[in-house]
Design a protein that fits this description.
It is a single chain. By secondary structure, the chain is of the alpha+beta class. It is built from 6 helices and 4 strands, in the order ααααββααββ. It has helices at about 5-30, 40-60, 65-85, 90-95, 110-115, 120-130; strands at about 100-105, 105-110, 140-145, 150-155. The chain starts with 5 loop residues before the first helix and ends in an 18-residue tail after the last strand. The model has no long low-confidence stretch (mean pLDDT about 85).
Length: about 170
């Protein structure tokens, strides 16, 4: 349990170093999206990359070459999906959620909160984090595709064109 063999430790060290370099190279070539704020799809790919790395390191049944191919394949598939969703906006709705309006002109949209499983306290926290003390001074709070809450103060709402494409954002 505490120690099996020196050769096992040597394998973990050698394959671990090679796998680490492979992950760095794959992430570098796969683009900024792989390391950006994550929507649900990107998070799944990131977790899969981590799981694959762990398998390469700890399973003697998986060679470095097989693991490297798996890492490249995951990054390539994520790149393909990102490209397809850029070319065909309808596909984007299948892969990622749409942003959702949770508060409009100081009024909480209770149905949207319920559908998105967000509490009013979370909305208030996001508003406070922007330095606002009054919900009526807020034009919109949007639950973004990556799970963050964006707050648009009423004084900066302008023509509200930033709310286009937001579920519940058109009036």
């Amino acid at each position: 349990m505490w120690f099996d063999s020196w050769s096992d430790l040597g394998r973990v060290a050698a394959v671990g170093a090679a796998a680490y370099v492979t992950v760095v190279v794959v992430l570098r070539f796969s683009g900024k999206r792989t390391l950006a704020k994550l929507n649900a799809f990107d998070l799944v790919v990131t977790v899969a990359l981590g799981s694959t790395l762990a398998t390469i390191l700890l399973s003697s049944d998986v060679s470095w070459t097989e693991g490297a191919l798996a890492l490249v394949l995951l990054a390539l598939l994520q790149w393909v999906v990102a490209r397809v969703t850029t070319w065909r906006p309808g596909v984007r709705a299948v892969v990622t959620a749409e942003p959702t309006l949770l508060l409009r002109d100081g009024r909480v949209l209770g149905d949207a909160l319920s559908r998105q499983r967000v509490t009013i306290d979370e909305v208030r926290q996001a508003v406070r984090a922007t330095g606002q003390g009054d919900l009526s001074a807020v034009a919109a709070v949007v639950l973004e595709t990556d799970g963050t809450l964006s707050v648009v103060p009423a004084a900066q709402a302008g023509d509200r064109s930033a709310l286009e494409g937001v579920t519940g954002g058109t009036t």
